[in-house]
């Protein structure tokens, strides 16, 4: 409705007043007062009309602004949904800890690194080359994806930062970008490795029912030491990973691990010995290393019970003996043998 249509009655009043003003009045003073009253009424009506027109224009502008705001809001929601979709897809290519640190702003996406003491993990399937020769590529792909999915689930449950997959091999580490302390990181890594071996034994039963006759076993190597961790590569393409001699040592321990076993270095053993049963395996000289490395086999509670915990404790009035045979080094075993021999010799 036009603004003037709203004032039809007022316009009629003005028309009638103008007609009356053209007629004789009782006095000039009365006519002048009537004329002034009509002028004031017309002025007030004009002002009111202008306000109404301004109000109509403001209303139209507000409606247009609201429409633009709604369109912008819809576009913003769509962009947010697209961004969330892209972020969810990108997260599949990054370890959850790295992804969270980047998107929370804790870590900058730039070529940078730092030295840090980490517990490094390597694993691969024993005899994988032979398995690949016996399977069709489609079946092999399904097997590997199933295996890696299960291993990744165990790794994330224990808080590992998954570095990369290399065929059937898995590389992971504990201590960055999140850490629960050096000892707890090492314990979590070894517990994860034992849980992976347990999960793989169950998977082997499933795969055997699917026609894979050869049992699949996994070798795992773990070492704790200083590594360089951060973003490596170029400004256009970078990887968040770890490098250094201690990373290579963990990889070589995995090569020397027995099938189905978790082989750890003395550096890792020193951190987990009070929490996880281990069996001393003696020194090895990994290829490319100039010195031997003392190694230990981490045991699950079931394996430890089957082998005995290797601990001996005796408390008498004049004799105390407390030994952890599995934890003793060869030198400690030799010194203990000599000391016990001297004691027995004195018994006569």
Structure in words:
It comes from Tritonibacter multivorans. Residues 62-89 form a coiled coil. It holds the Pfam family Guanylate_cyc. GO terms for molecular function: adenylate cyclase activity. Residues 119-254 form the Guanylate cyclase domain. With 348 residues, the protein is of the alpha+beta class. The protein has 3 domains: 3-77; 115-309, Alpha-Beta Plaits, CATH 3.30.70.1230; 310-348, no CATH class. The protein contains 11 helices and 10 strands. The chain has helices at 3-6, 8-21, 28-91, 96-103, 128-134, 137-157, 182-209, 245-256, 266-272, 301-307, 330-347; strands at 113-125, 161-166, 169-174, 218-233, 238-243, 262-265, 278-284, 293-298, 311-315, 320-324. Strands 1, 2, 3, 4, 5, 6, 7 and 8 form an 8-stranded mixed sheet that branches. Strand 9 and strand 10 (320-324) form a beta hairpin. Helix 2 packs antiparallel against helix 3 and helix 6 (137-157) runs antiparallel to helix 7. It is elongated and about 155 Å long. It starts with a helix and ends with a helix. The model has no long low-confidence stretch (mean pLDDT 82).
How are the elements arranged and paired?
Elements: H1 3-6, H2 8-21, H3 28-91, H4 96-103, E1 113-125, H5 128-134, H6 137-157, E2 161-166, E3 169-174, H7 182-209, E4 218-233, E5 238-243, H8 245-256, E6 262-265, H9 266-272, E7 278-284, E8 293-298, H10 301-307, E9 311-315, E10 320-324, H11 330-347
Helix pairs in contact: 2-3, 6-7
